[in-house]
Amino acid sequence: MSASESTTGGVFLVSVIGQIEKAHFPSYDNMYCKYTFVYGPDWEIVTGIEEGISQIAQKSQDERQQVVWNFPLDISFKSTNPHGWPQLIISVYGLDTFGNDVVRGYGVCHLPVVNGQSSEEMIMFVPESSSTLQKLTSWLTGKRPEYVDARLLARGDGREVTRVRSQGCVWINLMLCSKTFISMALKTIITVKYQFLSMMVCEIKSLKQYLVKKKSQS
């Protein structure tokens, strides 16, 4: 798609490259992460992978005790509407003493809206059991509470009934490059201002006619 076609059709492009660098979970080791992008109905993936899974990594033996993945991200979107701006969801898993996969943390953030490089420390959280009985059951069976679909974190519907607690953090590094987004935004602002001024002119004309009519009647 050429630049002229993008501008004429009201389509803008957003490309993101980066990596999920590392994580810090002091009490856990041997972890891997999953990522997925969630976006609105007006968005479409042009190139890249929507979701992926990293390798298992051990935490460093120094005082930092960080798990390093350096897992690459590379994806491009196109859209006609900024609504539904893409979000990145990261889920971190590890192995418990029985060798089962257990969720260690969830995190979600919007992709940057400004061109350039940005780094973010994503605070992770895990859902908690809603009752003492469920806590006891999860402790006996080794199955911790987790989301059936992590995309729920981006939508927000139903999240008010879940209990969570903070646990660990993940560092990500992203570089965003957009095309025709700024020009499209400026065009939208100019259009809105023109419509507002036109409406104000109509209101002033109506008020002037009303005052003239009232003066003639008096």
UniProtKB/TrEMBL annotation:
Any GO BP annotation: cilium assembly
GO cellular component, one term: MKS complex
Keywords: Cell projection, Cilium biogenesis/degradation, Cytoplasm, Cytoskeleton
Main location: cytoplasm
Subcellular compartments: Cytoplasm, Cytoskeleton, Cilium basal body
InterPro entries, sorted: C2_B9-type_dom (IPR010796)
Keyword Cytoplasm on entry: yes
Cytoplasm as UniProt keyword: yes
Annotated PANTHER family: B9 DOMAIN-CONTAINING (PTHR12968), B9 DOMAIN-CONTAINING PROTEIN 1 (PTHR12968:SF1)
Family classification: Belongs to the B9D family.
Descriptive protein name: B9 domain-containing protein 1
